[in-house]
Amino acid sequence: MPLLNARHLTKNFHQGDATLEILKDVNLTLEAGETLAIVGQSGSGKTTLLSLLTGLDRPTSGTIHFKNQDITTFSETQMSRFRALHMGIIFQQFHLMANLTALENVALPLELAGNPKAYDAAENALKRLGLMHRLQHFPRQLSGGECQRTAIARAFVVQPDLLFADEPSGNLDAHTAASVTDLLFELVHEHRTTLVLVTHNETLARRCATQKSLVNGRFS
Q1: What is the CATH number assigned to the segment(s) 33-58+75-219?
Q2: What DSSP designation does 56 have?
Q3: pTM for this one?
Q4: 3-state secondary structure of 156
């Protein structure tokens, strides 16, 4: 049984009388431990597809079975809990909570899941990412690389079955980007985490075992 099986996904948006087809009959199967890069130019539908696979948005049609459950049928509450327990997400814009420290940001998904040792696990995750000296710092006090390492710690702290990364180095300078992506892949291999990496960077994509190209809403 595959970890994730998405079948015949479409996503349409309406603008006045016009219908925009963003995704067109997309199929995707992921096995546990697989690393997949989805590449494509801006506007190809990469981020939209990621939003559907993570349950942050719903498809116009199609199904997504994750751990043999059709997540497209979940309520928002069910999906939020399922995502917190089984998925990690790393965004280009970091998406850290500005009013929380690095430690609180990393502990948050575990707290939401009711884990009584959330802060111990968060501290260990930040230590692994080389951020023990930044535990009590707020995002505004961190560099871009430190923010992204904090975001990576937050994604891994739940020990996700599936990790999604959307242009994880897109907002970083070349040196910092290389350091952050090296760390990301080191953790993926260390934990044998299934990875879906969304990027327009083909060099980065080749670090994944499999690459798929999305062109005008379809896999080519």
Answers
A1: 3.40.50.300
A2: S
A3: 0.90
A4: helix
